[in-house]
Amino acid sequence: MSSVVRKPKSSAVSHRLLVRALLKWFTRHARDLPWRRTLDPYAIWVSEIMLQQTQVKTVIPYFERWLVALPDVVKLAALPADRLHKLWEGLGYYTRVRNLQRAARQIVAERKGRFPADFDAILALPGIGRYTAGAIASIAFNQPRPLVDGNVVRVLARLFAIRGDPKDRRVAEKFWLLATDLVATAARLNPVTLPAGSRFLLAGNCSALNQSLMELGATVCTPVSPRCSDCPLQDSCAARRTGRIDHFPQTARRPRATRRRFVALVVQRAGKVLVRQRPANVVNAHLWEFPNVEVDLAETEPSAAAARMLQLKLLDVRALATVRHSITRYRISVECFAATLKGRASHSAGVWKSPEQLKELAFTAAHQKVARQAGLI
Ligand code: SF4
User: Can you give the pLDDT at residue 343?
Assistant: First the structure.
């Protein structure tokens, strides 16, 4: 039987046909990813948290290193904060990793380190929302719990021509209802099997269905130029049928990006470098960075302005590079200057670390790039 679905006659029938096609497609076409070779809820949880805001190819080496260093909840709960940040260094959005550890400590304290299987207990853990709880419950435990992420929204919006901004609460609820119905339909069908020789482990149809929607969105129903001729749902897709693929999902336009300009100073003295740790309760809390300040976009003497604001007297100032990165709607440039210090630095300016010590510190993503430009890591 072809895996391509014909035009549905009724919604009940269409969901069954859609789900069958998705399950069949997933078992044959899904990518071989390291977190698909396990049913361990801990590993699946870690992968889901890492994959938030981060691309698959970036996550793979982090995930593999993490599981070697921290193979279970107990090890994660006991890891000192600086080593935890170092393992996450470069992934960004560090609240994620701190919540991972908070949740691990809770699981150790309340459940002797055993990851909960109950959906509400999973949802109650720090850093776990509706999406992540649905992912863990379905992928690790094959529970008929829905999940909706950006990829699922795109597939469902096009497939059913769903109007309205998916960020609008009432529209979002439509996606969750559809996802709920699809995963419940999957649970009622005969269990799918993986082809011989597959390296995947599959907890069952609910796992396969949820992953199939995300996988289709990531690999076939992509934001630009979807590969509809390879799509198992092509004959059922409302957006394709009406030639309006580009109209879905109807996400509202984002606010215009705002430019921000920073200056970072790589200040050296007697073989040591001045760095500082970001305080608690700010973005990238506890991570390390070089002394830096935000300057006006029109500033013509950026290194002098930064030295003045940081109360540092500098010698031999030379430009190193400009590092660019984006956080939410901000397009940030960090102009880096190397210099030596004349006189003393106040305690608030930072602490002196040797190049060997710098390698042990977890830097923010931007300042990791600065350190690389300065030849320090
Ligand atoms: Fe997406 Fe095209 Fe498949 Fe429709 S047919 S779900 S637009 S890939």
Answer: 85
Q: Are 155 and 217 in contact (CB under 8 A)?
A: yes
Instruction: Tally Cβ neighbours within 10 Å of residue 69.
Output: 14
**341 C-beta closer than 6 A to ligand 1:** no
Whether 233 is in the pocket of ligand 1, judged by its Cβ within 6 Å, is yes
Q: Looking at ligand 1, which residue's alpha carbon is closest to its atom 2?
A: 228
Enumerate residue ranges in the chain where pLDDT < 50.
1-3, 5-10, 12-13
Q: What is the pLDDT of residue 10?
A: 44
Angle at which helices 150-160 and 169-188 pack, to 10 degrees?
90
Backbone CA torsion sign across 303, 308, 314, 315:
positive
pLDDT of 127: 97
Give yes or no: 299 in active site.
no
Q: Which residue has its alpha carbon closest to ligand 1 atom 5?
A: 234
How far, in Å, from the CA of 245 to the mean position of ligand 1? Answer: 8
Ligand 1 neighbourhood includes 245 CB (under 6 angstroms): yes
What is this structure's pTM? 0.86
Amino acid identity at 355 = P
d(CA 163, ligand 1 centre) in Å? 16
- pLDDT for 269-300, tens place per residue? 999 999 999 998 888 899 999 999 999 999 99
CB 31 within 8 A of CB 219: yes
Residue owning the nearest CA to atom 1 of ligand 1: 221
- Determine if ligand 1 sits within 6 Å of the CB of residue 220: yes
Residue 351 pLDDT: 94
Rounded Cα distance between 250 and 371, Å, is 41
